[in-house]
Hints:
The protein has one domain. The chain is mainly alpha-helical and 110 residues long. Helix 1 (8-53) packs antiparallel against helix 2. It is rod-shaped and about 75 Å long. The protein has helices spanning 8-53, 59-107. The mean pLDDT is 80. The two termini are 21 Å apart. The protein is built from two helices and no strands. The longest helix has 49 residues, at 59-107.
Amino acid sequence: MSKNEPDLQRMAKDVASVLAASLSRDLPEMQSVAVSFLKSREKRLKQLTALRLKSAISDAELLSELEDEKLALETKLLSLKVISAMAIQDAANAAIHAIQQSILNCLKIL
């Protein structure tokens, strides 16, 4: 490698480092949304099970209620998708910045 070529091994390490830092920063929020949803629906799911066991609702009613739960879960998962997309965009921006810095350092243009 000449002085005028970027150090690809160092660049790869820098990119990996910024990607890990950026994505791990958003992971707790993603996990929090998922856990919160499950906790908020636990009582309702137990209630539906109990109602069906007592024959207080029919199979069709249970399936209809579970379809409503599915829609609620899909809504929460879509919010995670937005969070994930933002996290990925932030990570990509950080990675490109690391690559630019490596190239600019090689060219001595700071």
